[in-house]
Automatic annotation (TrEMBL), chain B:
Disulfide bonds join 3-96, 50-102, 51-104. One of its GO terms (molecular function) is cytokine activity. One of its GO terms (cellular component) is extracellular space. The keyword Disulfide bond applies. This is Interleukin family protein. It comes from the Eukaryota. Belongs to the IL-10 family. The keyword Secreted applies. Keywords: Cytokine, Disulfide bond, Secreted, Signal.
Amino acid sequence: SGELYCSLPNPRNVHFESINMKNVLHWSAPEGTGDGVLYKVKYAVYGVGKWIRKPECRNINRTWCDLSSETSDYEEQYYASVKAFLNGSCSDWMETTRFNPLTDTKIDPPMVSVSSTDKSISIILTVPEKWKRSPEEESVSLLQVYPGLQYNVSVLNKKTKKRWFFSISNNTLVVPWLEPGTTYCVSAQIHVTTPLLDSSFSKEHCIATLKDK
Amino acid sequence: GACRVSMSMTEIRAGFTAIKANIQSRDPIRTLSILSHPHSLHKVKSSDRCCITHHLFTFYVDKVFKHCRTEDSFVNRKISSIANSFLSARRKLGQCREQNNCVCGEESTEKFKQILANYEGLNVTSAAMKSLGELDILLDWMEKSR
């Protein structure tokens, strides 16, 4: 059947939202259209000549579509596109800008675990994993994706409110010469210099040093 | 020994990121890539990396930057800053090549010929703008293979 005459307003702000390379296409409904709008989605690998339909996102009424599986090769770049339908009419295809999973993803903060002695605390940081299709699939740490990755660590003495910052490359840190019987709170951030990617700081993990023997 | 050329990837990345959307929006052709198809840079053998890098620096200096003038002075400034970084890196790599084994294997020579063929398949301005829009593909490959 021939293409419908497309006079429906277009979907707006079609873009990828990516966290740890979980790449989800988002858009806003066409202006002035109430309920009942349906959408279909297609995507393309940049440099390859064909658009590929996403069956799971055909005739959907939600305004997002998970394309993580289709865009999981971060050595490629991608485009995605959305078309709206309502009461027999349709919109144009509306495209994203070129999406580069490697540079356009956001990274979650590292997981922080802390332990203490009377005069020191030990911090172990774990980088989040890259998105994967299923729990059975082999895990890939974002450390493998961004080998030059570093950590910024903040340590706060809750009593004196004194704060130290450390920039480290490996994932463990021991902070010595601390006060016994005192609570210290640790927060950490991932920092990738190039491409420039910074996670937010993790929530604080507090621990008390042991009391003096 | 290997050729190791220092260049400020962070500066180049920042410069490119600032103009990426502008430059890529000037390239309407989704179905053709200069650098990544049909062969991917990521498939280049490590022994050929030095030579391909030199070829690509020369390609960008001689065939890309000079054909990418825009009506936007901010974009033009960023382009010339990136171009200067490439120019100095190419000079260093060239000197290094003369003293070192920076030889392209047959496979990589074919790869670079394909890049030139992709480039020559378009008019100069479109090819140059598309190549500039693919700078992150080159930077991603260079960083990954550091």
